[in-house]
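Narrative of activities, Objective 1.

The group set out to show that a structural description can be obtained from nothing but a protein's sequence at a throughput compatible with the screening campaign. Below is one input-output pair from the validation batch, recorded exactly as produced.
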Amino acid sequence: MHILFVTSEVHPLAKSGGLADAVASLAKTLASRGNRVSLVLPRYGSIDSKTWEKREISLKVPLGDQEILTGCFYRRQEGLDLYALDHRDLLGRPGIYGPSPAEAYEDNLLRFALLSRGALELALALDLEPAVIHTHDWPTALVPIFHRLFYQNTPLGRARTVFSIHNFGYQGWAPLERAHETGLSREELDRAGLCHNGEINLVRGALIAADTLVAVSPRYAREIQTPPFGFGLHQEAARQGNKLTGILNGIDQDEWNPETDTALPARYSRKDRRGKALCKEALQIEFGLPPEPGVPLVGMVTRLTEQKGIGALFGSGGGEEPALRRICRELPVQVILIGTGEVWCQEEILRMTGELPNFSALVGYSEALAHRITAGSDFFLMPSTYEPCGLNQLYALRYGTIPVVTPTGGLADTVDCHTGLLIRHYSPGGIVSALQEACRLYREAPLRLEEMRDTAMARDFGWSRSARDYQSLYGAITGETGSASSAGTSRE
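Output recorded for this entry:
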């Protein structure tokens, strides 16, 4: 089967979070199963075109009454056909969504409308004729809308569209006065369902237009149909519930493998975990903490956003003292963290680093350091207010590091009492209580802790099962059943 992915991120070319990892791993796994997978993304300024082949085509991408001349670069990589749409002014900026993680480009609606319509024009120009066009999150939400409005009588008309919901909290809102940047008339906007509560909402249009919808965990597929997790679109998600599926993300088990991970100072396996203690000692030294084996080490690799729990961890609202200050003051632990995001939170982290001897953090991100934190920590803290799937807890399980999580979305689907600890109530006190339990487990029940590590490392969260589910879903909507279609999807 030929599958066309359209995405704003793919690891390692462009990444701001787990979307890039999920798209790359799913695409590679589908290709390894004998499918032809093409992938279209923007050629951001951070992508070096020297290793790409420039295609001698000039796409005149129609957006309303204008045509935007767009180029294309091509590269074959890990079994995938990669196409990078080239427009220096709109797509060639260094940032994906903005000049920094806390800022957004004002014309993102136009930028991602160009990506969405440009991907379809590219598929026509190159005679790709995919069976499935699979798009991911709000930046490519216009693809199924454009496809339904303008491409039914073209060679792309036979394709079926899949829209993946990686994070329902980001819906592509834009003021109505910028609606012209989509290239759609007001009549077309209304027909596509893009106008919602006096604004443009790209995801709402994709919910209506796509042939099928996929949330990145079964529980999240249910949650987005409820007010707390629907961010204003829960009713539309429920209306489209007959075409909404939950399929759990996987992880790249070659890249995340403690037996072969070159980022680690020592490697280890489920059967021989002695190297994990060496990873912990090296990590403590790297972060300037005393290398004490008897002290539990709590790690975090996170975006500093409210979704990831920074309000309860670092904020001062609600009358409770922030959780991390209490944890570092009251519990016999060490805490390390890397992340970027909200400026106020970054500033608070820097203050805490100077004030608390058992807390050390880096404002920033390093892929290699993320691997070392995952391997060297005893516990991995994820107090998310909601989590569509989550990948860090899957990495932690793979490395025998016990996740401490709120039971929401994909965290609830992947962490249980045999492999992790639950934050029963999202609040500073609830997080402190969960870490108290972690400390008790570490001091008083080391054999139980080792059993949990062993069970965690035995779990298989690779992409094979999820890719079978996706391929079965593709077969169901296209009629191209193939050998994998009997696998069954995680349909809600």
